[in-house]
Amino acid sequence: MEAFPIPSDTYKLGFIGAGKMAESIARGVVGSGLLPPSRICTSHSNPIRVDAFESFGVTVLPRNDDVVEDSDVVIFSVKPQVVKKVVSQLKPLLSKKKLLVSVAAGTKLKDLEEWAGQSRFIRVMPNTPSAVGEAASVMSLGGSATEEDADIIAKLFGSVGKIWRGDEKLFDAVTGLSGSGPAYIFLAIEALADGGVAAGLPRELALGLASQTVLGAASMATKTGKHPGQLKDDVTSPGGTTIAGIHELEKGGFRGTLMNAVIAAAKRSRELSQS
């Protein structure tokens, strides 16, 4: 196979689709200093979306065709129901010299490769905390994507959080955990805040404490290297307040409910990708 290496220090990045996810990635890339905005482009007709990208220096071109022609790396950041149409329309321009990336949920590499007419594709599953630079993303390589291609995409998505490599067959489970997971945590934060209000705290203080507590606990889990069970034990004194609270969570099936949520979301992802 003839290789067409992407010049890592000069390549141009294009987004097909100029929604919130594309904006988050572009802002992260620019904010981290990985790419200057002059090397990034997209296309959109909505003046609000045009202003959003132009506000941090990204070029907004008239058509998707222009974006593909001007880019070495093309990220398809469109809704799953339109990705086939969009990729198929651009097929004549999607040469093997271009590295293609999809963040469309539930859309398999084999389908993307068929619609594009080439297999230099990488599929990435990010999540919404990319908007604040704290994404949990997983990527899987298509048939002719190289390790050098993978390095480029790892750096791009690493600018908005953390990224792991995984086999595509794991992506439904990834969707159930990290894709849908932020919503579970928002629900937990809301419930913790409600508990604080029920215990007598003002709403604003309760919400602030709940949000910061979740953030702090997650930081401890990622930075200390300790198992979450050990961290829980470290703060659980015999006969104390924390074990009393944990006892109530266990009686309510807290862990099992979270596990079931991940499994249910993964199952639904599987159903949607097959429909």
> Can you list the strand order of the major beta sheet?
3-2-1-4-5-6-7-8
Which class best fits the helix and strand makeup?
alpha/beta
* Poorly predicted tracts of residues: none
Mean pLDDT across all residues, rounded? Answer: 94
Helix content: 40-55%
How would a textbook summarize the main sheet? 8 strands, mixed
Shape summary:
elongated
| H and E string | EHEHEHEHEHEEHEHHHHHH
How many strand units? 8
Rg measurement, Å? 21 Å
Account of the protein in words:
The chain is α/β, with parallel strands linked by helices and 275 residues long. Helix content is 53%, strand content 13%. The protein has twelve helices and eight strands. Strands 3-2-1-4-5-6-7-8 form an eight-stranded mixed β-sheet, with helices on both faces. The model has no long low-confidence stretch (mean pLDDT 94).
What topology emerges from the helices and strands here?
Blueprint: E1 13-16, H1 20-31, E2 40-43, H2 47-54, E3 59-61, H3 64-70, E4 73-76, H4 80-90, E5 99-102, H5 109-116, E6 121-125, E7 135-141, H6 147-158, E8 161-165, H7 171-179, H8 181-198, H9 203-223, H10 228-234, H11 241-251, H12 254-274
Parallel strand pairs: 1-2, 1-4, 2-3, 4-5, 5-6, 7-8
Antiparallel strand pairs: 6-7
